[in-house]
Amino acid sequence: MNVEKSTETKLTSFGIKNTFQRKRVLEILAGAGQPLTVDEIYLRSKQEADVVSLSTVYRIMELFAAKGLVLKNITFDEKKYIYELAATRHKHYLICASCKKKLGIDDCPVEQLERTLAGQTGYKIVGHKLDVYGYCPACQQAMAKTEGADSDGAAKTK
Amino acid sequence: MNVEKSTETKLTSFGIKNTFQRKRVLEILAGAGQPLTVDEIYLRSKQEADVVSLSTVYRIMELFAAKGLVLKNITFDEKKYIYELAATRHKHYLICASCKKKLGIDDCPVEQLERTLAGQTGYKIVGHKLDVYGYCPACQQAMAKTEGADSDGAAKTK
DNA sequence: ATTTTATTTGCGAATGATTACCATTCGCAA
DNA sequence: TTGCGAATGGTAATCATTCGCAAATAAAAT
User: Fold this and answer.
1) Greater confidence, A134 or A113?
2) What's the distance, Cα to Cα, between the start and end of chain B in Å?
3) What CATH number should be reported for the domain whose range is B90-158?
4) Distances (CA, A) of B143 to A115, B77, B96, B101
């Protein structure tokens, strides 16, 4: 009951009406502590009774994004959208290209660039998107072992 | 001189066999001077005889990207892929959120960050993605005129 | 508490981009 | 020119996302 309460408060404070499904999705998102795709949210909702239907998850995420409750981004493979609570501070990630683990990056070197660009171009800058890709230590080790046939361009993009 | 000749040379230098379609696509890409989506390439190929089929354009772009001839990115609305010759230097853009015009950004402040991150996390950094969004001067003016019904949260993040 | 009225949800069908298939055609070396 | 592996065209299949609409709800009014 208590957790529910703050969830409801949060929704209304963003100008979003309370419904069971919206509270549910918000809880899932808050509990995850990491960005989630629509189907991940849908799957988690199915782990208990009262599933939130897939299309409703889509609608809710669009609503949340429009209201600024969540940030809409795209996955590493750029094949689907992924959402995270806007409250979560880091907007940038260091993403392991192999295991997809995400590390938040606190430092953002782009703000300075934005000021420079604004002055040079006259654009009114509204935001930016930055992700850094690499291989985490664990995956580097794993790859070192498994390696053997990688002279040419074997490590295909996909 | 023979544009064809250099096109062929370029393909072979990237380890790509010459076919009519591949030369055609490469020419279109070079002539465009800006990133193109698959269907844009397809449409341009249709402006003359000897159309390159849509699925072939897809295959060719994937091949070009795998060989490093082109860079694969995603459009502003994040709904499809867009390709540009890798030779083209800027990997980053200042994108007008209204008219979608793209300006190349020469300066890249991320390389320094990459070094810092590598040291801090042990990750082997392989690349990054950065785009800055804003409104170009022209669109700012246009919006100033058209404004009037924008009291609520119309100018949302996306 | 019940009715009213505007939303929201669910589910299935539609869409749009991308990929998979497969029969036909092409590039190129012998 | 011939032969064969690679490439192409056309289309069917996939996958994420969006739509349409009847049924279920929420908040407001009675």
Assistant:
1) A113
2) 46
3) 3.30.1490.190
4) 22, 20, 13, 15
Of B67, B78, B37, B72, nearest to B54 by C-alpha is: B37
Q: Give me the torsion for CA of A9, A14, A17, A18, rounded to 10°.
A: -30
Q: What is the pLDDT of residue B140?
A: 77
What is the C-alpha to C-alpha distance for residues A3 and A73, in angstroms, rounded to an integer? Answer: 27
Domain boundaries, chain A: 1-88, 91-148
Residue B117 is nearest to which of A72, A105, A126, comparing CB atoms? Answer: A105
Token code pair at residue A101: 């683990």
Overall fold of domain A91-148: Dna Ligase; domain 1 (3.30.1490)
Which residues from chain A sit within 8 angstroms of residue B132, using beta carbons? 110, 113-114, 117, 125, 127-128
The bases of strand D with some atom under 7 A from any protein CB are: 6-12, 15-20, 25-27
Write out pLDDT tens, residues A25-83: 999 999 998 889 999 999 999 998 889 999 999 999 999 988 888 888 888 788 999 99
Q: Do B134 and A123 touch (CB under 8 A)?
A: yes
The topology (CATH level 3) of A1-88 is Arc Repressor Mutant, subunit A (1.10.10)
Q: What are residue A109's phi and psi, to 5 degrees?
A: -85, 5
- Rounded to 5°, angle at Cα A91 from A37 and B123: 90
pLDDT digits (tens, 9 = 90+) for A80-90: 999 988 765 55
Tell me which residue of B135, B35, B133, B38 sits closest to B80, measured CA to CA: B38
